[in-house]
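Page 47, continued from p. 46.
Same chain as before, 75 aa.
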Amino acid sequence: MIALKLTQIGNSVGLVLPKEALAKLGVGKGDTVYLTDAPDGGQVISPYDPEVARQIALGEEIMDEYRDTLRALAR
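Result:
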């Protein structure tokens, strides 16, 4: 377990992630991480949001299905 410290950043509160946590998550400065609800009632910080991934996959399916229509509209 890694203890994390909350710190004041302007009018907000920020969470400082140590290098070990960043490396384990595979993220760095400027990357987006997601705070999602876990099945046990807790919360999880991850670089991956299953809902966003589902929406992207759905968007890609729609773009594939309507490729010709979208190309014609782009002209």
